[in-house]
Amino acid sequence: MGCGASQPAAEQPAAQRSPARDTHEAQIMISYRVAETGAESLGGDGSALRIKLYLESLGYSVFMDRGTAAVDRQLQQWAERPEQRIIGCQVFIALCSPGYGGSTWTVLEYQLAHSVEKTIIPVWHSGQYPPAELQIYMTELQRVPSGSQPLVEMDFKTVMQELTIMISYRVAETGAESLGGDGMALRIKLYLVSLGYSVFLAEVKLWGGQAKRALIGCQLVIALCSPG
């Protein structure tokens, strides 16, 4: 995923740096530069984890690493886990900080997501946008936030609401045909989310435990009555 002239710095890939705790494919994968948007203990500002927790609070399943594994892995080892995670996800979020795309690992992750035609949503965290190394890929993509200010200069919740709407819209665009439906449930979710509600869809690719917790914890259940 690169078109810049500088040599990418070595960094461990997001999906390799720390194995996921579950064995399921996540709906959303967050690709990020650990030293900038990872855990504060690793030099980042914690943005990647904040985004993960926000999306999980809405019922999405999200994969990101914790950036705790050793950084001296061989390049060929990268392909063991990220390929499964990226191919298995529905939405690939590229958290664009100043160094995103300037490392071998973020480039590989983005290129794989692009090559398998995943829904890619760039989140402009800070720095130049689009990143020089990824400009050829990102120029035509709608980013979040859509205005002239990056995430770090805006209210976090406001940006997350825009991101959630974008995710719902993109999944509704691409998911209805593959699921055999007309996308109406996702359109309803999109509208309610735009009003500030948090909405869980029981029929999308979420697993039993999450669906059960969402049902117990919600205030209102909407039954969308179709012929079946």
Automatic annotation (TrEMBL):
<feature type="compositionally biased region" description="Low complexity">
    <location>
        <begin position="1"/>
        <end position="18"/>
    </location>
</feature>
<dbReference type="InterPro" id="IPR035897">
    <property type="entry name" value="Toll_tir_struct_dom_sf"/>
</dbReference>
<feature type="region of interest" description="Disordered">
    <location>
        <begin position="1"/>
        <end position="23"/>
    </location>
</feature>
<dbReference type="Pfam" id="PF13676">
    <property type="entry name" value="TIR_2"/>
</dbReference>
<dbReference type="InterPro" id="IPR000157">
    <property type="entry name" value="TIR_dom"/>
</dbReference>
<feature type="domain" description="TIR">
    <location>
        <begin position="48"/>
        <end position="131"/>
    </location>
</feature>
<dbReference type="GO" id="GO:0007165">
    <property type="term" value="P:signal transduction"/>
</dbReference>
<protein>
    <recommendedName>
        <fullName>TIR domain-containing protein</fullName>
    </recommendedName>
</protein>
